[in-house]
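Subgroup meeting minutes
Present: P.N., E.W., G.H.
Scribe: E.W.

1. P.N. recapped why we're keeping a running log of single-chain structure predictions: easier to compare across weeks, and new members can see raw inputs and outputs side by side.
2. G.H. added today's entry (242 aa).
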Amino acid sequence: MKIHVLTVFPEMFAGSLATGILGRARARGLVEVALHHLRDHAHGAHLAVDDTPYGGGPGMVMTPAPLVAGIKHITAPAPTHTILLSARGAPLTQARVRTLAGMDRLLLVCGRYEGVDERVVRYTDEEVSIGDYVLSGGEPAALVLIDAVVRLLPGAVGNAISPVEESFSGGLLEYPQYSRPATFDGLEVPAVLRSGDHEAIARWRRQEALRATFERRPDLLRQAPLDDDDRRFLRALGWQDG
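Output recorded in log:
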């Protein structure tokens, strides 16, 4: 996979792309990340990429010419799915991440200032938001998206089962995790996890995932794949089906 990033601040990516899963995936050749400086596609003495908004208002708006020139330059060699990171975009979900992880080429366009000239949107394939809050720019959002996508690439995570069992992968939040020691500060690891009974452990994990989702993100239960045992357990917690 090759991921392109069009940004005013390429230096924001160096540390994150060189460490952890991202760093290892790049070293193994699983993903290539190319950073493109937006000002390379700007003109004029100051290589300006923003201007005052029509109609008045505070702040500056990113002008269309440098962004469109950058998008065209990056996507010209091969079809590239282009994403504008935007607070008004569709929420990024694990299901969407899985789809993006199956693509060969992505281009992430990072907005800044008060936003991007609306005419740029027609040169992208979709707008994506990582949450209902506002960032100073699209760079942190791009890093989140890159991390989420790359860890799903075959070979990126040491344990191939890990991404399958994590929060949101099965429509639920993840069950609680424990490690050594068995007792810490008077708190015990649940006995079932030390029992060696794999069937009981699987049942406990499923129920605890259901409990966490019911208590913290009940909205997810509307779309989660639930069987009759799941529904009985949730009703005992106070969940009302439908």
